[in-house]
Amino acid sequence: xKKIILISGLPGTGTSNYINNNYEGYHSVSIxxxxxLNAKKIANxxxxxxxxxxxxxxxxxxxxxxxxxxxxxxxxxxxxxFNYGAEIISFCCRTIDEVKTACANSRxxxxxxxxxxxxxxxxxxxxxxxxxxxxxxPFKVGDGK
Length: 145
What we know:
single chain, alpha/beta, Rossmann fold, 5 helices
């Protein structure tokens, strides 16, 4: 079956490194750098995702700001429409200190307010039980200084 991996995580949590180390051979769709995130960048990322589906790429990995159910849903609906299996991999922070560490790790730097807002979205989201989701905790307990 054709496969899609949706990567969700705050800037600075290691999502790009995770993709580079685990998804060689996948067609990669990314929002790009963390700076100046806006509706146009998000729309362009989704358009590139749809193009990959239309081109019938066997394996696709997406690295985009998919923090809430509403942000993930269009990707899941499109995957289902094109008969792809899809999995969400969420890079989660347990504490505000971990969010601060992630934010400090991000290159280019991302405002703390943005990181806190996205963290709050991830904590409050309720994903449908039929969506396959795996949580990864990129910081060892106590590492978020």
